[in-house]
Amino acid sequence: KAGVTQTPRYLIKTRGQQVTLSCSPISGHRSVSWYQQTPGQGLQFLFEYFSETQRNKGNFPGRFSGRQFSNSRSEMNVSTLELGDSALYLCASSHATGLIGGANVLTFGAGSRLTVL
Amino acid sequence: SQQGEEDPQALSIQEGENATMNCSYKTSINNLQWYRQNSGRGLVHLILIRSNEREKHSGRLRVTLDTSKKSSSLLITASRAADTASYFCATDANSNYQLIWGAGTKLIIKP
After folding, report:
1. DSSP collapsed to 3 states, A25-77
2. What is the pLDDT at residue B1?
3. Quick check: B92 and B31 in contact, CB under 8 A?
4. Cβ-Cβ contacts under 8 Å, A108 against chain B
5. CB contacts < 8 Å between A and B, how many?
6. Whole-number Å distance between alpha carbons of A79 and A13
7. Going by C-beta distance under 8 Å and a sequence separation of 6 or more, which residues neighbour residue B55?
8. CB–CB of A78/A85 below 8 Å?
9. Which residues of A82-114 are buried (b: 16+ CB within 10 A; e: fewer)?
10. Cα distance from B5 to chain A (closest Cα, Å)?
11. Which chain A positions have a beta carbon within 8 Å of B53's beta carbon?
12. What is the CA radius of gyration of chain A?
């Protein structure tokens, strides 16, 4: 089956602009999580969506937002970009229903690398 | 927030040697997972160990879990150049499906 697809893979923006990243999860997976990864801060949880509802949220400012569509595809948006937003943004999908032994095993996409100039 | 802490932060060994990485966590957990990340790519799930298990094997991987010490170790035997990657542990501590991640161990296998 197809993996998690993230688009675009690379993008360059300037400060003040906004960006939208897209994630298509594995077919049948209803949970989509987003992470920001930087060399200095490691893997930071942004938010998780399940059945179109935000179920968990990390400690990021309101400039970071997301949504999930009825087909489980998800987008995240960052407005008013800052230099510090340069990072690899990772999307991961899972069943996350507790039905598979209660374990939340994530399948990650290859990431979207954002550079803010 | 980061619950897991891996050590060492970086590890460099010769091909063929065994590599051991450790992960410590702070709260009680339901399970612990290990993931691998090749440079600049997404993470790949390696193995999951539940809180009632003490050891688990998968190919050249061996994971142990000591809930009394709140720690886990990942052993990669007979390392290969392709094992060069960063390795992360993630704990599932409650019922809200949110994983808590460690900072990762960067493993370099020298040919």
Report:
1. CCCCCCEEEEEEEECCCEEEEEEEEECCEEEEECCCCCCEEEEECCCCCEEEE
2. 38
3. yes
4. 35, 42-44
5. 62
6. 11
7. B49, B62, B63, B64, B65
8. yes
9. eeebbbbbbbbbbbbeeeeeebbbbbbbbbbbb
10. 11
11. none
12. 14
Spatial distance between the Cα atoms of B41 and A38, rounded to a whole number of angstroms: 12
Q: Which residue has the tokens 């399970």?
A: B31
Report how many helices (DSSP H) and strands (DSSP E) chain B contains, helices first. Answer: 0, 11
Best probe of the B interface among A106, A107, A112, A113, by most B CBs < 10 A, is A106
CB B46 within 8 A of CB B32: no
pLDDT bucket at B3, cuts 50 / 70 / 90: low
Tell me the average pLDDT across A90-112: 80
If you measure CA to CA, which chain A residue comes closest to B9? A42
Amino acid at A19: V
For residues B3 and B27, give the distance between their C-alpha atoms in angstroms, rounded to a whole number.
8
pLDDT in tens, B84-99: 999 999 998 766 667 8
Rounded Cα gap, residues A77 and A65, in angstroms: 5
Provide, as residue numbers in chain B, all residues whose Cβ is less than 8 Å from the Cβ of A94. Answer: 97
The amino acid that residue A1 corresponds to is K
